[in-house]
Here is the input.
Amino acid sequence: MKSRERVRRILNHQVADRPAIDLGSSEVTSTSAWTYAALREALGLPPKPTRVFNLIQMLAEVDADVQDALGADVAMLPPDEVILGGPYGDWKSYTFPSGQSFHVPKGFQPVAMPDGSLEVGISPGAEPTYRLPPDGRFFDVIPDKQGDPFDVPLLPRNEWRFVDDLGDDYLRAKEEVARNLYAQTDRAIMAQPPVFAPLGHGGLYNWAIVMMTEPAYAEDYMMAQAEATARCYEQYLQAVGDHIDLLIISLADFGLQHRELFRPALFEQFFVPAWEIVTEIVHRWPNVSTWIHCCGSVPNLVGRFIEAGVDCLNPVQWTADGMDLARLKQAYGDRLVFWGGAISTQGTLPFGTPKEVAAEAECVLDTMTPEGGYVFNPIHNILPEVPIENILALFRTARNYTT
Here is the structure.
């Protein structure tokens, strides 16, 4: 069975020949650039420059030959921009303080600090707001650049700014990229549009305060944001909708380790009606599934995600409270595709043995693969501390598993 067919069967809650596997389709289902060369070597593949497509997390763009070797079934439609680096596609070699060299966008122009750290702005030429410590593996927000979480200004309506027109030049260029990728691969294709489903403004923590204290303002803003986003999605899908299988509509984390970030009733009141406007547009393309990433403990939101029109939930963080895989599968498995959760990225994957990794992954597969609706991927990106033999054991388990 070809990858695209396999993924489409699973998205339709049908059984395929084996689990669909994902590595590299998004910025939350990928692997560290710091160890990517070692992964290629372990797979017996020739050396190749490592492209970093997400600089904050320092993620490697997973090459097609690596996906072939691991059995990965989903390809990433390349992003438009690389945060901290500018436009995707124009590469240069850059040597980091560790001595490792990667290909990064030409717009990546960090400032080397006396202590050996690197500081860089969110876009080329912007004031530095992110720092890579001398021995660090991620760019962190510089602490004194963080805003006050209790400072929640309400914007006058005449200052609301939403993207509602993506422009013909952008759309034609994106259409060509999507068409070419579709023709070049038999993998399913994941796309991330330039705007997300409504999230309010100022960050989710701030927005929760607004929803509680200014409900009329929050509702008006969310619905206006939804209408603008829906217009963008219609334009975007008219360009690429025939060439993709999955559309990322949110990467927001609504959960902590032990509970939801805010009252689930607020999601029901404000997010569900706004997201329904957006997902209704996406579902006009029957081959495209809506996909969200949401870490943490969100057992009281899963049903509301479905109500809002979400088709796929990543990552199914079963290490968080209330996220028991068997219970989630039984309650929602006929209506929601679970994407991820194959292994604990906080415990077993970095610290276990290959045998322990394989055992945990097989247990997850036994629980989640019956009747389709599950795509195999770790709970989050593979960190640089993970032994290569554990990565190989993880994906070998999925590739050899029969449904």
